[in-house]
């Protein structure tokens, strides 16, 4: 490990001192020098990044509000199906993009929030809402019957050559 050269910084002998532990190569520096060595992004830059993503989600929610109830239900089913396949890939130890879990869960939450906003506008109480959604899901045969399987997960649903299919 290279030694720290403080000759040109004006911090040579008096301000740089060795640490008490003999195993560490740590050199204690004054706070002003330590702060100057950190090259962090200013806080206003971080805020602009998060504000940009907030604007994007607001645009998405505005788009969701323009959809019909059937389109919302279809998108919820598709997101749940993709979550299911991601969990399958995770269990099979395949390489996955783990950020998709959070993104899909948040998308489902946004879609269901838009649906609930509409129900509130119609005057439907929470208990009636749950009964309605369960009855609708039961009538359709479950969300997995309605969902479109994404192309990247089709290989999980169709048997390939050499795969044994057991019919019960």
UniProtKB/TrEMBL annotation:
It comes from the Eukaryota. One of its GO terms (biological process) is translation. InterPro entries: Ribosomal_protein_uL29, Ribosomal_uL29, Ribosomal_uL29_CS, Ribosomal_uL29_sf. Transmembrane segments: none annotated. GO terms for molecular function: structural constituent of ribosome. Keywords: Ribonucleoprotein, Ribosomal protein. NCBIfam families: L29. Belongs to the universal ribosomal protein uL29 family. This is Large ribosomal subunit protein uL29c. It comes from Klebsormidium nitens (Green alga).
């Amino acid at each position: 490990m290279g030694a720290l050269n403080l000759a040109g910084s004006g911090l040579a002998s008096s301000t740089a001192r060795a640490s008490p532990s003999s195993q560490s190569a740590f050199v204690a520096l004054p706070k002003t020098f330590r702060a100057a060595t950190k090259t962090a992004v200013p806080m206003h830059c971080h805020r602009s990044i998060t504000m940009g993503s907030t604007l994007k989600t607001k645009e998405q929610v505005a788009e969701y509000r323009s959809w019909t109830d059937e389109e919302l239900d279809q998108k919820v089913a598709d997101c749940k199906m993709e979550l299911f396949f991601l969990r399958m890939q995770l269990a099979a130890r395949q390489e996955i993009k783990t950020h998709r879990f959070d993104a899909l869960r948040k998308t489902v939450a946004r879609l269901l929030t838009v649906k609930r906003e509409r129900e509130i506008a119609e005057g439907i109480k929470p208990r009636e809402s749950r009964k309605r959604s369960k009855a609708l899901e039961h009538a359709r045969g479950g969300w997995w019957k309605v969902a479109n399987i994404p192309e990247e997960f089709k290989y999980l649903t169709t048997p390939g050559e050499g795969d044994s299919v057991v019919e019960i």
